[in-house]
Prior knowledge:
The protein starts with a strand and ends in a 10-residue tail after the last strand. The protein is elongated. The strands form three sheets. Strands 2-1-3-4-6-7 form a six-stranded mixed β-sheet, with helices on both faces. Strands 5-8 form a two-stranded parallel ribbon. It is of the alpha/beta class. Helix content is 31%, strand content 22%. Strand 1 (2-7), helix 1 (11-24) and strand 2 form a beta-alpha-beta unit.
Amino acid sequence: MRNILFCGYREWSKEIFKRLDSYTKKVVNLIHITKGDDLKKSVDEHSPEFIFFVGWSWIIDKDIIENYNCICLHPSPLPKYRGGSPIQHQIMNGETKSAVTLFKMDEGIDTGDILYQIGINLNGELKDIFDRIIAVGVVGIKNILDRKYTQIKQDDKESTFYRRKTPNMSEIKIEDFNNYTAKELYDKVRALQNPYPNPFIICKNGTKLFFERVRSDDEK
Length: 220
């Protein structure tokens, strides 16, 4: 039986695990690693053929990356949008097309060779986008498990990098209504729907008004 570690704690990554587990359980021992679990202990115990990191936020030990097939799922068309909060940055930058990329991890941040990449669109609610990421992510991981992939080096000349967004960046200021179009503010709200810190306006006495959903006049 092939031992595979699947590291992920976000709700959308858990859904990918569920779908993979039902598909692979007859031929693959798929072990779920989540927040708080001892990754090093699991690696030593199972000697996995692959370790998948899907919606994972922590630095991985160098010796694990160097000695195991560590594969990361990144929801952007790498080498573009390396780094944190890729979906949020893409939507707020007005992008309409993205991709799900699975790449072999190295010591850099999202710099490893691409094994699988397929496009998705960024239309609709955030939950719709995550549904697309889930569906494509399952297919991509299956292909890698079946060794149906071609390893392609990233072109660093085409790369862009963004830092992870923090909760204070969710604020919409009064001046933003003059500085941004309705579509741009609509995209900010859409990009920061649950489970992310929702956009807010600071009102009288420091109270906050949060936005979970809005509609612009050109919403399709």
